[in-house]
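FAQ: What does the model actually see?

It sees only this:
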Amino acid sequence: MSNIPETGRTRRVTIRLVVLQVLVLSLLATLGGRLWYLQIRNGKEFTEKAQGNHIREVVEPAVRGEILDASGRILAGNETKLVVSVSRTALLQQKDHGKAVLTRLADVLGVPADDVKNKVRLCDAKTPQPCWNGSPYQPIPVTQQATTQQAMQIMERREDFPGVTAQPTALRRYTNAEGASAAQILGYLSPVTDDEVTKSADKTGRERRLPSDQIGRAGLESVYDDDLRGTTGVDRLEVDNLGRVIGSAGTTPAQSGNNLVTSIDARVQKVVEDQLNQAMVEARTQYDKETSRNYIADSGAAVVMDVHTGRIVAMASAPTYDPNLWVGGISAKDYEALNSKDSNYPLINRAIQGQSAPGSTFKVISTTAAVQAGYDLNGHYPCPKSLTIGGREFKNFESEQFGDISLEKALEVSCDTVFYGLAYDQWMKDGGLKPKKDAQDWFFKTAHEFGLGAKTGIDLPGEVAGRVPDRQWKQSYYDAMKTSWCDQAAKGGHEYADEIARENCADGNQMRAGDMVNFAIGQGDTLVTPLQMARIYSALANGGTLYRPTIGKAVVSPDGSLVRDIAPHEDGKIPAQGKLLQYIDQATAGVITSGTAAWKFTGSGWPQGKIELHAKTGTAEVAGKQTTSWLTTYSNDYAVVMTISQGGTGSGGSGDSVRRIYQALYGVDDKGTIDNGKALLPKPQAELPKFNPDGTAIVPTAFSYEPGATFLDPAPPAQADQPAGLQLAAVEPTRGGGYGRGRA
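And it is asked to produce this:
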């Protein structure tokens, strides 16, 4: 018998019963609350979800909108092709995961089985192209080149090809209108990924993009993707628990995407592409004495801009590619070629992503900086064959010398030593190696005012900002590189690179005299894009307005009604105004008539005196490479800029091709005869700003340059008299820096 008293045992049993009752009541309360939540609180939501389990959606892809040139020519459109697609979901239901199906399919299509298998595998970090980077639940296109006979074989033998379909599908087609590729402008499409589907869902959870969608990956296809892709249609079918269709739950018809009208003229685009290629071919026949071999001319870019609106008329980049390679899935061979060093990466749009030193084309900015700093616009400045600054000799191209010359003449003949002297003198005024707290830094400040060191804002993805190597950049670069420089310096090497590393380790954050004088001629660490220079020279042509470059002009519905206008946008004014603008205008006209570009325009099929043309040549030196050819030009209507990497001198590399572009624009034949009927863009020329002797503007009447738009030059105030010119007598030794020298 137990020794526990009866009363204690009863109490313990009672406590256990109470605890058990509490647990039971808690479970009942929890269950009741959960039932209330499911049936009352969220009953409607779960009822809708349950009903949704009996709904199956059949997706109808929307027809993508077209991309048109300024005259309505189709640059990117659609065409119907027989597309064979495979469902991965259906393949995975096979015992062998569809290997036999894919082998039979490859046999019907007449292609290697591995090619078909590779196209339906999913992309990841370790899987090379070709592979599928879209949703794994979306049918994967295997070929868009199926014949009618092949499609019939597949559809008639459905039991042999479970999950395989062959049906007409609207596919993207890049038309090469007028023979123009415009690949880097247009871009390309590829399937939407699951992450993109998820991220595109709005607050209600409704997907804005479906797994069947294609998305723009580059160019205009990317920027205007929301306008172009339209709305996918959905047919909702009611099915029973066996998946059999028992009715319709409604249909949302597909809506075609809107069309994009651009400022590109396909005929001009063709000419610019051809002339860029021709310039590179011709450059490769020219001998480079400094490297003892012909120029490589490995890449280049060209831009034609409407100076009154900032609209891009043509933009070419070389090397280029065929965007149709991406339609229906790109092959491993083509993908490798597009991303190969041997092909020099043709996917890059070098007009907005190619950065290089601008060479002497930068001197219009340096001229403006000098005037803003107080140097006499009408003064004369020494142009010796070289200057020794900081123990280093800075030369003119081929050691030319012109004595004391004006800034206009310095621009015309591209005298480096004039700008070396101006920049060095201003550097000394700012304190030299011990800069003043209020250092003016006119040359850097002016470059920023011209829009350099910042993106232009063009409606294309991937634009780069270039670089203005001012004091702020100098310090940030030093902070990033100091450890590397000092480690190299500690090794005690005696190569040139080792000496530079020791110098930079000690005080690489200082703005040295060499940095300053190199910057004044567009060398050293300065980087610009061809588009930035086209924008600057357009501003010189139109009276000083910096327009935001644009390619899109309007978004138009499939029925032709206007959805959205894309108007020109003013971003500001360049600091060159009034007398100074007129002065630069005269100097750049002299480059064509008697300066560094005259040999390409005088007696070479150009109607001197009939079409006003202006230019600045540039030959930028790049460490370890051949020189970069730059030619920046403008007329009353257009700015044309061409640059060729490792292409020789400015006018020598690009002069003939730029002249031919203008000849096509204005209908000029090789004898210099103008035929307006043959002009590709037969629009009247706007007058450039004219000025009175005191610098006040003679305002022209409103000039119509485009339907519904007018151009009226604002009248800038007269420039004040400037201080006397620079004296070079007090040049004192100080350490140089940077590298290279500019040429005409």
